Amino acid sequence: MGWWSDLVARVGGGGGDETPVAERPLNMDVRGPELTELRETLEALVDAMQANTARMDNPGWRGRVRDYSYALGGLRDLQRTPTRDGLYEVLGSVRPLYRGPVPEGYEELAPLNERLLAALAPLREPAPGE
Length: 130
Prior knowledge:
Elements: H1 2-10, H2 28-51, H3 59-80, H4 84-93, H5 110-123
Helix pairs in contact: 2-3, 2-5, 3-4
């Protein structure tokens, strides 16, 4: 059965290096203020969206508010325990309200959407030492 064990080893079924991969830390001197800005922006956006009671009847609108609230939870966890994987998870869970021209009915949220885009941009770039 030598060929079978060789095949299993080649496909990753046995004897691989099981050494844990060291977590690469975030540069919190740089990331700390960036994450704080993102958190404050998301909090302001959630507050503004929830204040629009007429739109809160819309399941899609409520869902987006819920998504931002969940992202805030992940962001708070990330600030307590900063990891690169945590940063990627947060960045993957936050998307702007819209891209491009301001859609009708979003005019009052346009400044917060721009602030959100500005807060996300530096977090997507590597910081020194990362």
